[in-house]
Write a structure and sequence with these properties.
Blueprint: H1 5-15, H2 17-27, E1 33-37, E2 55-57, E3 64-67, H3 77-80, E4 84-86, H4 94-101, E5 107-110, H5 117-125, E6 131-135, H6 139-152, E7 157-160, E8 174-180, H7 193-198, H8 201-218, E9 222-232, H9 241-251, E10 254-256, E11 278-280, E12 290-296, H10 311-323, H11 330-333, E13 342-347, E14 350-355, H12 359-368, E15 371-374, E16 376-382, E17 385-388, H13 390-394, E18 405-407, H14 410-417, E19 431-437, E20 440-447, E21 452-454
Parallel strand pairs: 5-6, 5-8, 6-7, 8-9, 18-19
Antiparallel strand pairs: 1-3, 1-4, 2-3, 7-15, 9-12, 10-12, 11-12, 13-14, 14-16, 16-17, 19-20, 20-21
Helix pairs in contact: 1-2, 4-5
């Protein structure tokens, strides 16, 4: 691996000669494969019945596992059903921060959230009754983020597509903010050759300045006494310890310790300032390069700036409300197990359900932000026909008894996920059918007898037309 000369010189000085040699050797080796299981859909005990040869636990994550071989994730129906997420192990350390400092329901923002690894993770471990807002600025990445959170299935989620500066209007709104900021990507060198090609001292400096801009823009949205989680996938002090020191000096933030175990082999502060911060180096920990710090915003009685509404977004919301239909039949509400816990809306022919206990927060978010997904989309009216939405099939609150079922073989499931026409057995009734694979919902189809209309989202389909020679699934 040809590493940049400036990177080698700086990192050798930072770590020392022997440790740098160990790091360079680790970067030439294959990265470990790790996943995180969605317990709401795939109980952990099912792993013991998996076809995988063996697996081992990620020490700092209750649902994280290293795999001894890399499954063909694209061709595993359980992956598409949201039963697990393929996530780099080091970044799962966020769980330890939440376990240490979040004991009650919160409103949390994952600011730079795509593709959704940390969002799906924190959504699984936040206290019951919490709301997660997951944001991504870039449009195509925000769509991927929404897809992954829809598949994960938890209803107490809002996905937005906004600049960090847009959140400043939500003064003291969030209890927790996770800022996994864009960085120079040194920790991803062995997985992404482009990170090596794009690395430079100038880019490191640009990243540090951009990170500070983001933190400055988002600080007002964090409640006094709130928790900020700052993370990067890089090693250098400029983007790591120096930004933590800047937060402490600029805003009076308190840097908080996170409980760790010696066997995790996590490295502490490299700046000599003694901050409780956490480095993951691939020659010590089983994972990629990662850095994390947890900070507490000081309690302040200072007057916060008056919120400025986003008039463009508000006018759009008003137009949608003008078209909304007033009544939603109870039979559609029965599609969810806890229908009474939702606010039900019909907007532009879509029936949507959003958790009632977060309705006020949702309205505030809608005033200032561009919301692209929220709660559970139940279905859509097309003429006189009601079509159930794929998000309903993915929801962990789906009432499984509200639709007839059809169990698919592996071959049928892959054909369905490719958006191909499938045929169901004669015993399957006509109409909308919930399709399952290994007893887990993977989507809807409309059975018309000789064939079934495939309702899988076109943009999510498996695009590969041939199966790999060896198929290994969870």
């Amino acid at each position: 691996m040809n590493l940049p000369v400036d990177f080698t010189a700086y990192t050798r000085e930072l770590l020392g000669g022997e440790d740098y040699i160990c790091l360079e050797k680790a970067l030439s080796q294959e990265a470990p494969v790790s996943i995180r299981v969605n317990k709401a859909k795939f109980p952990l005990e099912r792993l013991t019945r998996s076809v995988l040869a063996s697996f081992s636990k990620v020490g700092w994550c209750s649902t994280g596992y290293y795999l001894t071989e890399r499954p063909t994730f694209t061709f595993d129906p359980l992956f598409h059903a949201g039963c697990y997420y393929v996530q780099e192990a080091s970044s799962m350390f966020v769980e330890q921060v939440l376990h240490a400092y979040v004991m009650e329901p919160v409103i949390m923002l994952d600011l730079c959230a795509a593709p959704g690894g940390k969002s799906t993770h924190v959504r699984s471990i936040l206290p019951e009754g919490s709301l997660l807002v997951a944001n991504e600025l870039i449009r195509n990445r925000s769509q991927v983020l929404a897809e992954n959170l829809i598949k994960w299935g938890h209803p107490e989620v809002v996905v937005t597509q906004n600049e960090p500066s847009d959140f400043a209007a939500l003064s003291s709104f969030f209890d927790v903010i996770l800022t996994d900021v864009p960085c120079s990507g040194e920790g991803m060198f062995r997985k992404d050759k482009r990170a090596i090609e794009e690395w430079s001292k100038v880019n490191v400096e640009n990243c540090r300045n951009r990170q500070r801009d983001i933190l400055n823009q988002i600080w007002n949205a964090l409640k006094p006494g709130g928790l900020l989680i700052y993370s990067t996938c890089t090693y250098n002090l400029y983007e790591d310890e120096e930004n933590v020191a800047w937060l402490a000096q600029q805003f009076g933030a308190e840097v908080l310790p996170v409980p760790i175990r010696p066997e995790w082999r996590i490295t502490g502060d490299l700046s000599g300032k003694g901050y409780p911060v956490y480095h993951f180096f691939p020659y010590l920990t089983q994972g990629e390069g990662f850095f994390l710090a947890a900070l507490r915003k000081p309690v302040s009685t200072d007057r916060v700036p008056e919120r400025k509404e986003n008039k463009r977004l508000k006018s759009k919301e008003g137009k949608k409300k003008a078209k909304a239909l007033p009544m939603i039949p109870d039979k559609y509400k029965n599609f969810l197990l806890h229908a009474e816990a939702y606010q039900w809306n019909m907007c532009e022919n879509l029936i949507q359900a959003f958790p009632l206990r977060h309705q006020e927060a949702y309205q505030q978010l809608g005033r200032f932000l561009k919301v692209i997904h929220a709660g559970v989309t139940i279905g859509e009216w097309k003429g006189k026909d009601f079509i159930p939405h794929h998000a309903l099939s993915m929801s962990t609150d789906l009432n499984l008894n509200s639709f007839p079922h059809a169990s698919l073989t592996y071959e049928q499931a892959i054909a369905y996920l490719r958006k191909e026409t499938i045929s169901l057995g004669r015993e399957v009734p006509h109409g909308y059918i919930l399709l399952t694979y290994q007893h887990i919902p993977i989507g809807f189809a409309k059975n018309i007898g000789n064939r079934a209309n495939n309702l899988y989202p076109q943009e999510w389909r498996i695009r590969s037309v041939s199966l790999p020679e060896k198929i290994c699934c969870l």
